[in-house]
Write a structure and sequence with these properties.
Elements: H1 3-8, H2 15-21, H3 26-41, E1 44-48, E2 50-53, H4 82-94, E3 99-102, H5 112-125, E4 130-133, H6 136-145, H7 150-160, H8 175-182, H9 188-200, E5 205-211, H10 217-234, E6 237-244, H11 260-273, E7 279-280, H12 284-287, H13 289-295, E8 302-305, H14 326-335, E9 339-343, E10 349-352
Parallel strand pairs: 1-8, 1-9, 2-3, 3-4, 5-6, 6-7
Antiparallel strand pairs: 9-10
Bound molecules: ligand V47.
Ligand V47 is lined by residues 65-66, 166-169, 171, 206, 208, 210, 241, 243, 245-246, 250, 283, 286, 304, 312-313, 316.
């Protein structure tokens, strides 16, 4: 069947369809993605008030695209104490954060307790805060480092107060690209397996995709389809987050960077291919705020949040070191003719700003 007909009939798209979608002109593609977005959410754009905390940058793994982990290019290693994490959490919560997004590097110099106690102590002080923590890559690292099964790390997450899992560490699932950009890190199969185990505990998570480096379009669509297959089984993913590759301070040599059109097409295609993942997040940190605002018209219905501070993407060139002010964030959404809907971490609506 003709691809346009398939889109009109909202039929499920194949890998080949997804790749072909890139050849459509941006207006046609945008119109289909926007239609889907509007059917689901009309002009609502979701965001939350959150704080990213990255408690250590000491990492056993070497990912070529990463500038965050301490290495020759970034000699300033750090590992926060529990008190430091609690102080940041206190400050964030006093400033309105409802979610702490806690992601660390893979630090083999600290104990398992160092990773887990912070969750328990935060929850003791602030029982209502939502803790989104531990990527599948961290879970894989902790399991291997401490001779534990994935299941037991996941049980510990539940026991210590982790509420949901962030989508980091997915990078690109295609095995040969993955081998080149982050050899030794959690395999694609295990990334998916860990999320599946988490979902089987009736917990929710997100999924990312790092694009705009050495991967091809077909690898992006293949990545989406592997997520779609798992979502058919578990229905545990809340949001898909295409992360635009940032080029500074890292070891991945990339000649061509994606254009604004290519980035917008990728958001639009994710909305159309991922017919079972409810939210497409234009993470303004890696796309730039202006492109994220345009992405609202290309299928994205979520802009993440104010974040307050961020270290993983700002070190590689993103303008996110200090987050964004709430009123500025809200005004930008409203000035682009969308409704700014504050949500909680599981997408329950809190209020319209
Ligand atoms: O996993 C690392 C990526 C991720 C670069 O779940 C890079 O709601 C671009 O996962 N260029 C961390 N990206 C961020 C992340 C995330 C962000 C916002 C929301 C959620 C969520 C998750 O940043 C890493 C990695 O894929 N990253 N280096 C780089 N050079």
């Amino acid at each position: 069947m003709d691809l346009i007909e398939k889109l009109k009939n909202s039929e499920r798209l194949t890998l080949e369809d997804g790749v072909k979608l890139y050849e459509l002109d941006i207006y046609t593609l945008g119109e289909f993605a926007d239609k889907k977005r509007c059917e689901l959410y009309s002009y609502k754009t979701y965001f939350n008030i959150n704080r990213h905390i990255n408690p250590t940058n000491v990492c056993k793994d070497i990912c070529k695209f990463c500038g965050f982990s301490a290495n020759r290019k970034n000699p300033n290693s750090y590992t926060m104490s529990l008190d430091e994490v609690l102080k940041i959490s206190k400050n964030a919560i006093e400033n309105g954060a409802k979610e702490l997004h806690i992601v660390s590097a893979h630090n083999d110099k600290v104990s398992l307790d160092w990773y887990f106690n912070m969750f328990k102590e935060i929850k003791k002080l602030y029982p209502n805060i939502h803790i989104k923590a531990l990527t599948a890559a961290e879970i894989d690292f902790l399991a291997k480092e401490h001779n534990l099964s994935y299941e037991s790390v996941i049980d510990k997450m539940v026991e210590y107060g982790v509420d949901s899992m962030p989508g980091g560490g997915a990078e690109i699932f295609n095995e040969s690209v993955r081998d080149f950009i982050c050899k030794g890190k959690v395999s694609s199969e295990n990334w998916l397996k860990i999320h599946k185990l988490w979902h089987q505990k009736n917990r929710q998570s997100n999924a990312t995709m790092l694009f705009g480096h050495i991967e091809e379009r077909k690898h992006r669509v293949e990545h989406m389809i592997r997520l779609r297959e798992l979502q058919d089984e578990t229905n545990g993913f809340n949001a898909f987050i295409p992360l635009v590759y940032q080029r500074e301070n890292n070891y991945l040599k990339v000649e061509n960077f994606p254009t604004g059109q290519e980035i917008l097409k990728t958001y639009a295609i994710s909305r159309l291919v991922l017919d079972n993942i409810p939210h497409i997040k234009a993470y303004w940190v890696t796309s730039s705020i202006n492109l994220a605002l345009v992405a609202q018209e290309f299928g994205a219905d979520d802009l993440d949040g104010t974040i307050q501070k961020e270290s993983i993407n700002s070190i590689v060139g993103a303008k996110s070191a200090n987050g964004m002010y709430l009123n500025e964030f809200v005004n930008l959404i409203k000035d682009s003719n969308f409704r700014a809907i504050e949500r909680d971490s599981l997408y329950n609506e809190i209020k319209e700003h």
